[in-house]
Each structure stands twice: as structure tokens, then as C-alpha cells.
Amino acid sequence: MKRSPFDSSRFWAALSVLLLGEFIALGLLNGDVRLWLNAWRQVIKNGLPGITATFCLLVVAVVLSRSLAGGIWFFLKSMGGGFQKTGFWLGSVLSLFPIHTLAWAFIGQWVGRWGFPIWSLMPVTADSPSLSFLEHLSQDLWTWVPAIFLLCIPLVGQWIVILSQSAPLLETPKPTPEEVEKSLATPHLVSPERVPGRPFAEFMLRTRDRIQLRTSMRTVMGENQSPELPNPVWGIGLLALIFLFSVEDILGLPGAMAKLVQALRAQAYQAVATPVVMLSCVAALGAFCAGSPILKGPATIRCALAWLFKGAGWSIVIASQLAVTLGIAIPLWPEVDSEMVFANPLSALWAGFPSMLCALSLWLLGHMIHPSKDSLNHA
Amino acid sequence: MARSRAVLHLLSLTALCVGGWSAWRATQTNLTVQAERVMLMPGALPALNPFLPVNEAERQILDLIHEPLIRIDRDGKLGAALAEGWSWHQNLSCWFDSAEQAKEAAQTITAQPLEIRASWDLESAIPVGNLLTFRFTHPGGHVADEVMAVLAAKPPQKLTFIRIACTPAMRPAIQAYADHPEHRPHVKRVWFDDDGSCEIVTSLTGLQAQQQLIDWILPRHTPVPEITPVSEVAALLEPVLDFRLKPGLRWDDGSLITAADVRATLLYVLPRPWPLPGRDLFRHVQSITQTTTGVVRVVYRKRYSPTLAAWTALPILPAAWLKRHEADFGADFPPGAGEWKLTRLEPTRLWLSQRHSEAKQTLQVIAATSPLQTRVGLSTHIIDIWWPDREAQRTMTSDASWRKLPTPPHNQLMLVWQTESPIVKDIEVRQALSLALNREALSHEMPGGRARLHDSFFPPGRWFSAEPTPLIHDPNAADRLFAKAGWLRDVSGNLKKAGQPMHLRILVPEGNDERLRLANALALSWKKAGLHLQVDAVPTHGYRGELQAGHFDLVFLGSELSPGWDVLPLWHSSQAGQGMNVSRIADPQLDLLLDALVSEFDSSHVLRRASAVEVRLAELRPALPLFTDVADMAVQSDRFPGLRPNEIQRGVTLRQLLSGALPKVSPAVNLQMISPK
Q1: Which of B12, B31, B381 sits opposite A64 (nearest CB)?
Q2: Same domain, yes or no, for B362 and B511?
Q3: Least C-beta-crowded within 10 Å: which of A267, B71, B139, B175?
Q4: Chain B: closest CA distance from residue A72 (Å)
Q5: A124 with B366: Cβ contact below 8 A
Q6: Chains A, B: CB pairs < 8 Å
Q7: Average pLDDT, chain B
Q8: What whole-number distance in Å separates Cα of residue B299 and Cα of residue B91?
Q9: Which structural domain range is residue B350 located in?
Q10: Closest CA to B402 of B36, B40, B58, B34
Q11: Under an 8 A CB cutoff, do B22 and A342 touch?
């Protein structure tokens, strides 16, 4: 069934997200509507570049990661089932690797070891008039490209996991034309000739005269069906937004997420309302673009248990990322700071391994209890 | 399906290519500009108040922008700045009963034989009304006596010095007295000190002046302050310092730099509580005028040669700007007359460019950067100069491209003995205590964990600073000296004399944690030598009183390094008790040497005089010089190739660094061998 690009559900989804954000902002302001309006004024006055930056990063990262994952998956599929399995595991590892450690490791290597610039982090920038168009373009691009590529790493991993779960690992042999014809000759449950409530035997008798399905339906049924994903963009987009919390801050980008981090770090909770409003705008835009989410509860207890473990796994990754970004020390958890990564970029990667391994083990436990066959919405 | 897959792959390929291209361009970008230096400031962008630098980095920037009349050059000598030259003279002013008498006196003097006038170094004798001013080419007290002896037949009016112990609130009333038409003819000079007290030079007798002042003040201010006639003289002997300004010096608005700017700057700074080095020396200034030849003439009310060096620490600002910004100083950066000027300003950056150089170097100063940005700037070598703190210096050591340069010191710390204290009055005990102290270890307790050992009583690196033999930590020699002084160790290792243990008391101002830490470290260090040091914190308001009363054995005395050779207030016997001589050293020979030093107006002889003082102080040991402060800047070695090793020893200023920053480009010479035909 094809979904209309402008069906009303996406409007409602976007509106719900926006309203949720507004309620949070209002709560932060102790219900003071004047302050809330003031926050909105600030957003309109100064916040649009931040919203645009975060939204563009989000969209580009999701689209590009889907594209890259598609390419990689195509390659893996062409290489065979073993590669597909490897892809699945690698994807899981990548998607659960804390992105802040990746960002720090990248900065440590690119800037600390090689001495190359990242324009968003440079304390000094060249004067615009003295730059040629190409220099200007390359500087503008290299301001955003590191963030997009860093975001793409876990997102590609997650896309690969989704793709691998939604496609059968072993190809089923295609039926011969005779088998298809024989199958079509069999009375079908979805035949329009079937009248609900009528005895099955009568129906069976009637359809002995080869009551055919309509041609269009026959075509659909006869095709090698591709698996339908229950809108994974929602899950991936949400993940990207969470990852942006660290990436924007570490790379010094002027996005809404970076503003939120700064306000939270300063513990100015009333000031947090403005970035929350900005963020709700980004999320609403994202929800509008992604369409409505497909929410499906766990069917069985096993499924619910699997959800629980996988959720715990993801929580470890996300919590460690948020804590490090906000400068909250977690006992027994390796800390990452700029001095450390500049001295040894690999140390940042090593610092990411404990949380990744914890998260991966919990996720695997959930996967073993109930291997999901569809998207991140279920993962 | 196939088409969408192709589009998908094309999209990812394009994105990878574009991203890769931008990354490649980033690796190829040349981040350094040859004619621009980038300096990273610690903290926020400086306010650039030339009299109140927050840190050493700001002080160095101010040194680029602003220019004093004279400055200390690379060799530690007095050098030209706004003034290309300077000379001392002396004025002798006397007042006669009438203008005719003054003229007659002038003729009497000029009629003296040439040899006598030459021996006086008499330059001119100019009568103006009943005032006759003699001008001598060299300051000297004995000349005045000889001149007055010649005029004994028709002597000038007697002048009385009246001291009024008034408060600053009474200043307008006193000034009004001096300016009143009735009083103006006999009031010759009025001087106000910082504490408000006033000195008037009048041609009235002491009693007349006293009565007149009481009559004037009583209706205006009660109670009437103490009015005391101090002394009586026949003439006023006033040293004169002439500065020849460089020709054509102008401010940015095109106006000429004149004596009015010098006067306005001094008048602006002195009433404000800014830490101006040599502030006390400016109190001797009587007037600042400009001669018709453009010479800035400073007349002093006292013969005190170190006043010259004080001008090295006073940046001159435009009088017009100061007038405009009387109330809101600091809201805007004051323009300077230095080699560099502020050309651009942003919230976290400012640009300075060279004023007159052909190379047109610029200095970009960046501030308020995050630690990560700082680290990125250092790693990408986009920063040429920065000011690392203690932690950063540790990480910097791994990078060989950075070179650490100390800047000249500005403060000193010494351990002053109370020379009348029962124990430390013995010079051998003071010497032994000095030898028992490990200054190197103690320096780690200084702010920032660093300090430069200093052995002299004079500022380091100046032409008049002798290099005394460094004091080496020697516990054995200390023990021998203690024994010689009668202090012997008992079985527990404690020093005792006549059964009494050595117990000393050091004072620290309450709330000064740095001094307290230092005192505790000192106590710990001396405990090994067998003596007990009691550390007493004294409330700040009573600290000075305790020092002047001598209720201590030793004390840390920290001070700004004097711009000149002005050490008299610390060690002269006249300053003991109520003055700054808290060591209470009173040595006639030292007093004579100090008097001779401050009376030496020939700069080339100052070294000899200062060395004599240094030697005597080393013999008397009223104090143990400990440290001077140290601030390091780190520079990229390859961007500043002209540095010499001795500059690192002495300390390098940003000004020196930038003046020799650009490597001299030699013209390419293409020599071809010409073979004989």
C-alpha cells in the first residue's frame, strides 16, 4: 500500500512533537507563559540559523547514511551470506559505539597528530574577502562534513542492521511458472468471490470453476515481494538527533543541540527553555519529513523482555554520551578529555569500548531472546 | 528499482567525493600569514587600561601601543622613546623686594669672572619681575651656596616652608588661599601630598604665614589643622629635567605630542589608585611646562635622581582624549603613541598593526577561546605566541616547535630581618639563617609554582644592577655560623643558646594564603636546621602598624620592582619607625651611600654608586632577597628566528620579539664566474 506524501498523519505527528517540546519548555519556565513567549521571541530573532543547522545536519546524515548503507549492503549481499552476517555484526558494533569517543578520536588524530584544521574549532579564521571562491567553499564544507561523516558512522551501522534484519539471509528459490500457475488456480482467501459467513465447503465448490483473482492482484501476489519496513526513518532520525547532542558540542557547531548542551552545562535551567523550543522545532520538522511513526507494542512476553534488554543496551550508549558531553563523571567509566585525545587519539577509542561492549552484550541478549525481523522501531 | 538504487549509490559517491575534496583542501591550506602574528591571550579580551594591566600578556600589548618619554632598552639602559634625549639642569629661584633689585642681582652674577661662572656651570640668570632664576647645567647643592654668598650684600627675600597637616577635603580651601590676589605675591609654591598634607613656600615669616592661614581656614574649615613653619631658605633650589621630544611626533588625530599631554597624563593618573611603578617618585614633580623649542621641562621640588627612571613606566596619553574621557575611562581604548596601533576590534579579537614600519606587520590577539580551541590552535600551529599556565607548560614540553621565553620581572620578594630583634640582630645569625634556607625548594611554593631566584637589592637586568654572588644553600656552613654565634644543637638537634631554644616569629597578612603557604614552607625548611618559626597571621588593617612597630623577627616583603635605583626608603635610617625601613637598619655609612646614590644625576656613575650600596647591604644583611616573579610566553621557534640566548636570560618583551620577528630578506645574489677570454 503506497502512503501519500502529504497524508494528514504526518502533520499530527509533527504537531504532537512540537507540543511536547513546548510543554517541556513551559515546565522549565515554571509555567510562566510570558517567559515562554519570550523564549519564542528569542528563537525567532536568533534561533533560526541554529534550527536550520541542526535540521540540515539531521536530514543530510540520515539520507547519506541510508545511501551509504544501501551501497554497503548491496556489496555484502553480492558477496554472499557470510558477508551479510559479518555486516550485521559490524553494523551492531558501529551503531552501539559511543559517538563522542569517535569524535574525540577523529579530532585527536586529524588535528592533534596531523595538524590539519577543522574550521569550526579553529580559534582564528581567515578573513573572508581574502579567500577565493573555492577556498571559501571548501572551508564551508569542511565545517560541516566532519560532523556529517561522524554521524554517518553509527547511522550506517544501524541501517545495515535494519537491512539485514528485514531481508532473508538465504534466498528462497524462485517458483517455476508452472508452480505459479498451479498456485493461482487454487482458490484464494482474498478472492473477491468469497462471501464472509458462507460455508467454506460451498465456497470451495463454487471456486472449482477457477474463479480468478483480478490481474493486478495476481501480479502483486506473484511478485518476489520486498519486505516492508515500518518507517525506520523515525528511529534513525531520533538516534541522529541524540548523537547530534555530542557532535555539535564537540565540533563547536552553531546548532540547536550545541546551545542546549551549553545551557545545560551552565545549569541555567530557565535558559534551557529556548534551546528546547528550538529543538522541538527541529524535531517537528523531522517528524513532518519522516512521516508518522508506526507504533507496535510487544506481542509476547519474550518480545517484551527482548525490548527491555535492547533498550537497556541503548540506554548505556546514550547515557554515557550525555554524561560525558555534560561533564558528569560516571564512576568506573573512562573519562575523555581534549588533553588525553591530543596526547593519544587511540585512547578515546579505547574509552568507548567498555560502554559499547556493555551495550552490545545487553542488545545481543535481547536479540537472542527474540530476534526481531523488522526495523529499529522494534529493536 | 535499479534506477533508484543507482541514484542512491551516486548520491553516496558524490557525497564522499565532495567531503573528501573539502578534507583535502583543508590539509593543503596554509594557515600562517607571513606578515601576521597571532597571539593567544589568557582569559578575556583585555580592557587595555595602560595603567592597570590584568596580566603579563596585557602588559606586553600595552607596551606595544603606548610609549613613555623614555624606556629601558634591550641592554637594560635608559633609551629614547617619545623623547630622543634628556638632560638634567638646576634652577635657583630667589625673590627680591623689587624688579630692579632682581636685575641688579642678575648683573652682579653675570659680571663675575668667567672662570667662576664656568665652575658654577651657570647657564643663565634671568630676572622676571622680582624673581631671579639662575639656571645651572648640572644639579649640585654647593653651587647655590656660592651664588648666594656673592649676593650677600643685597640678599633676596627669605622664604619659609610651612607644612599644613590637612586632609584631602581641605585642598580646595588651601588652593583658594594660594590663588587669592592678596596672597599670590608672597605664596611662591604650593605642594600637596597624596595624604592631603600640604607644603607652602612663602616670603612671609613663619608666624605671619601661620596666622594668615589660620584666619583663612577657620571660617572655611574646622578644626584648623596643624600649621608648622618647617624651615627658612634664601632661595629655592629645584632640579630641572628637560626632555627633547622626537620631532614631528603626532597622535592619530594629527595633533602634536606636547608637554600638555605629559602633564595631563600625570595629573590623571596620580589621584587614581592604579599600581603605577615609581608612583612615589612623581610626587616630587613641581611643574611640567613646554619651552619655546618644544622641550618638555619637568621641575622637581627635591633633588632626587631616581625620579628620571620613573618616566620609563608612565605611558603618555593625549590630553584631549583624557579630557573627553574624564568620567568614563575604560569604556574605550585610549590611543597611544607607540609603534603599534589598534586597527580593528571584535568581541574576542583585536588587531594591532605597526605604525611606521614598511613591513606592515600585524598582530592578531585572540581571547576567550575554549581549552579545546586553544589546543586546536596550538596543534595546527596557527598561534605564534601564547601564555601557557603551569599545566599547559607541562604538556608543551613534548612539542619541540615551541620555545618558552621568560618576560622581564615586575615584582620582587625578600625576607626582611628585624635587625633590633634579640636573636636576628646578630649578623652571623642572619647569615646562617640565609645559608640554611633552600630558596630553590621554597620557590615551588610561589604562585604558579615558579619564581626566579634573585640575589640583588636592585632590579635585575638594569645597567646599574651589579650581579652579586648568588647565595648557595649550605646547611653545614649555616651550622658553623650558628656555632660561631653561640647557637649549638642539643641532643634532639634543636639550636640553643644559654639553654634557650631559637624561636623566631614571622608575620603574614591575614587572608593572604600565598604568604601563609610560603611561611609554612619556610618554617618546615628551618625546622631541619633546628629552629622553630612561629607563623602569625595579622589582620590586614594592623599589619603595617605591626611592621613599623617592629613586633616580629622576620617578614616577607613583596613589592613592585622600582623602575630606577630608588632603594633609599627601604634602608635609610630616616625611614625606620614610621617609614618603609621595617628592618630598622640604621647604618651611617649606608645612609651616606644611599644619599650619594639618589644625588647622582649622571647615569654613567649610577652603577658605581649602586654597587657600593649593594656591597654595604650585603655586609649588613638587613634582608635576604628571595625571588622575582616570572611569566613565560611560548613562541613558535621558526616564526621568530632572530632570538639570542642572552635575551632569554634577561627576559624578552613582546616588543623586542616583534621588532626582530621578520627574518631579514637578503637580496638574491646570482654570481657568475667570468672566465678569462
Answers
A1: B12
A2: no
A3: A267
A4: 9
A5: yes
A6: 110
A7: 87
A8: 8
A9: 36-66+338-407+632-659
A10: B40
A11: no
